[in-house]
Amino acid sequence: MLDRRIKLRHLEAVTAIARQGSLKGACAELHLTQPALSKTLKELEQTLGAALMTRDRGGVRLTPEGEVFLEFAGQSLAALRRGVSGVAELREGGAEVLRVGALPSVAVRLMPRVVTRFRALSPTTRLVLRDGTHGALTRELQSGTLDLVLGRMGAPETMAGISFTQLYQEGVVCVGRVDHPLVAHPGLAPQDLLDWPILYPPEGAAIRPLVDRWCVAQGLGPFPDRIDCVSGAFGRRFLRASDALWFISEGVVAPEIEDRALTALPLDLDLTAGPVGLMTRPETAASRSRQLFERALRHEAQSLPRS
């Protein structure tokens, strides 16, 4: 029988600490003071009769008991959130709601076509779309705020408790305006990029380690004139008014390349190709709406040109 001393705040405390990797980060997320959060964690450990976490200079680490408890605490919170949402949806008229997150390359290139097909398959489903960074969207998926996320596979530490199904491969391109001096540069080499302003993926961006790896393989040192940015709105506008070049997922700028608003430099960037796919929580049963959305997604993904 479940010990009635275990409360919702205990589950939220453990999942937030594990997600943030520190008490300080969890306090900010939960809007609690550190003594209050420490007290909540201590209460739970005393109730369970086991230490769930240890602290060291690297942050907070889960004990084996903590790993077990975290898995089921996360599932419980996700189920509870879905239950609360389900009641709200019934009160609003009974329409099923599907919450989908998409990284920018998928949001621009694939999502409009997927949504059009999905709405034909399930016209009564209320679709809630979110875009954002890989870290933000996967955290919302892990917490149960989102039902699924579309995008590149992230680093192992960001994919805990997430199932990934590959749909296609996508590479990074280096783009500039169509009349950029390097477009017609004979014998273009990676070292030629060092003379120009560069928009570079920031820390935490899914493509950052791929572009870093490509630069190392080409013998490129740090770019002397660099802006760290993956903002599609800024990048498109800035490139058209400057001599800057932009390392970005091909899907983000595919429409601009097709419309000849931007052009991809003829560089071999095959090393940056990575899997793009569907991320879900494996312990969550797929609703009818999610099944239909995944069907529409796979159909449209198959029609994409391969990088």
UniProtKB/TrEMBL annotation:
This protein's UniProt keywords: DNA-binding, Transcription, Transcription regulation
BP GO annotations: 3,4-dihydroxybenzoate catabolic process; positive regulation of DNA-templated transcription
Any single GO CC term annotated in Swiss-Prot or TrEMBL for this entry: cytosol
Record-level Gene Ontology MF annotations: DNA binding; DNA-binding transcription factor activity
Ranges where the HTH lysR-type domain occurs: 6-63
UniProt cross-references to Pfam families, sorted A to Z: HTH_1, LysR_substrate
InterPro entries: HTH-type_LysR_regulators, LysR_HTH_N, LysR_subst-bd, TF_PcaQ, WH-like_DNA-bd_sf, WH_DNA-bd_sf
Statement: the UniProt record of this protein carries the keyword ATP-binding: no
Similarity field: Belongs to the LysR transcriptional regulatory family.
Protein name as it appears in the record: HTH-type transcriptional regulator CynR
